[in-house]
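User: Before I run my own analysis I want an independent prediction to cross-check against. Here's the chain; please return only the structure tokens and, at the end, one sentence I can use as a sanity check.
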Amino acid sequence: MDFSLNEEQKLIQQAARDFAQTELLAEVIERDDAQRFPKEEIKKLGELGFLGMMVDPKYGGSGLDTLSYVLAMEEISKIDASTSVVMSVNNSLVCWGLEKFGTEEQKEKYLTKLSTGEQIGAFCLSEPEAGSDATSQKTTAIDMGDHYIVNGTKNWITNGNTASTYLVIAQTDKDKKHRGINALIIEKGTPGFEIGPKENKLGIRGSDTHSLIFNDVKVPKENRIGEDGFGFKFAMKTLAGGRIGIAAQALGIAAGAYELALKYSKERKAFGTEISNHQAIAFKLADMHTEIQAARLLVYQSALDKDNGKDYDLSGAMAKLYASKVAMETTVEAVQIHGGNGFVKDYHVERLMRDAKITQIYEGTSEIQKIVISRSILK
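Assistant: Structure tokens:
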């Protein structure tokens, strides 16, 4: 088994690393403090091809593999998870879902703009009473013949205010349960579609998280993705790939915190020597390095499964479950290694610790990942 990256993958990794260092690092603390969306930075990411990485070049994408995407996600997430979550949603959920299941007309109209970053997309599944239980959709899309009328509320929507194109999951036929759910493309500015207040979050504070309200929103039939009743399957298949992106984000957060802790341990002195010379610190670093590498291999495995046309439901769930756990544990230890300095914002690690927590919650909580894994192994 060959674990080495090819030249193209190495170039993508380096380009993402350079972008994170030159474009994201300088103002990342300020953006977090002010909860400021990285508008200019996202625009530049789009120009470099990082917002439609896996999209076919005929729709304006970069035509890269999933492994290249996770390499880029890791590097961006080492510095700024608020930026990488925008990148993840646009790539894994919106662009991938549209390219895989959309009509040619939908791809021409929406995907060509989303893949270049000219527009940003949002994926709208969660509701006040339907988070992990995605089948309990209260948002309705009533079939009116040539259009749907959509009513309801979505919450925790990444890119909620910034997006132009929203993929909205809604219930058309309650009697059919999850087989009566549809996925609809709704454009910003459609009459009756309102954007609620921005959430004041623990972490990923630069990202744009809002509730969305739909009041008698008219959506043409040609904006439905797939056959009637395909919405739930669309959401689950899209999220299965999204988990690989979030696993890569978690991996990046962990690796970023580890790199900062390693550097700090070689500079900070206590008891007459650098703290890296104390076994208590050296062993923490050894554990962090080992767990991060284990998480990295799980993430790479899930990406390769997707690239090779294999089923990635299990490997993606395992990667997200483990990488998010490693992110949380590593960032806590990175703060500990920094001591008092770790508790203040200037040293970055406290932000990484706050950012890590969401990776255990969104796009399927760790408990949901365990359901996916256990069902797979107990078939």
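Sanity check: Residues 52 and 115 are 4 Å apart (CA to CA).
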